[in-house]
Known about the structure:
Layout: H1 2-25, H2 48-53, H3 69-88, H4 94-114, H5 119-135, H6 139-164, H7 171-184, H8 188-209, H9 222-246
Amino acid sequence: MMVLFALLGLLVGALTNLLATSLVHRGRPTLPTCTSCARVRPWSQWISLPSALLRRARCPHCDARIGIRHPLVELGLAAAYAYLWWLLAPSPTLIPALYYTAVLAIVLVTDLEHRIIPNTIVFPAIAFAAAVSLYHAEWWSGLLGGAVLLIPFVIAKVVGSLLFGHGSLGGGDLKLALFVGLMTGFPLALLALVLATGLGALVALALLITGRKGLLDAVPYGPFLVVGGWVAMVWGEQILSILIRVN
């Protein structure tokens, strides 16, 4: 079953690459195409990992290289899906976790590469997460988690706009925060916020020290929220139990 879920993750990784490229460049899902010549790639390259392993990761039409992102996303989701099956099966939380992982992977790619969080991905994800939270006995947990994460981001956007001008924090980050809060619920949403903020601060400090970013340069916050949300979803209960025992 772990192998089957790894294969499922590989396929979802290929779909993630497709959506992350087509939604940004064309606004809708399309067949896998080369971003250089816009021609449809042969079906043998729709999953990029075999081509990468065989060192044939190039467009047969224009010889443009297929980016390393493609096999990395496929490998990452294959590992994540196998691990989630091992961790959660046969729990009913498995299917939502698989879906949330795919959504977060798409957001991670599009925000890192283009500073875009597609509405066509995040709006259905918000609706799904809200429906799942209402299904549980503690239905208020997801709604409270969404509020716990959304409110600080709204405040940060207002303050940032006053201090640094419009665009200091994108609207996509607010929608992503709401989704992650609904996905994790309360109190795990607080953990996701702490992890995202801490990771973002460390990365920003490292970029400042190395001179790659200045004090007024923007850094996409979505990837940190993606990592914090996924960690809170998968290991949040264990992390909170450890913190409670330590204190």
